[in-house]
Design brief:
Layout lengths: L4 E8 L10 H15 L3 E14 L2 E14 L4 H14 L6 E6 L4
Antiparallel strand pairs: 1-3, 1-4, 2-3
Length: 104
Amino acid sequence: MNKSYVVQILLPKERGDGEAVSQRWFEEFLEELTGRFGGATSFVRAPGLGLWRSGNETERDNIAVIEVMAAKLAPEYWRSLRERLERELAQEEIVIRAQEIIPL
């Protein structure tokens, strides 16, 4: 059986400078991924709330999740994409993670 993966991209709904990321930006990004992988799913309209500790303060982000299914991981592609997204969205770190799909 061939392996396949679900890749999740956790994106902020606001840029590092506090400006909202436009719905158009998310739509264009989804189209880019669909062109490369044949499909993508966006969880933008129901954002998740991310909390994390930074020193003595609790930081928070509204996040959107984009998922794609990929037959191969291609770490170089994902690393390059992560670096591009960090620049475009003015973020210190964008999380891109993958899980092997195990059919049940």
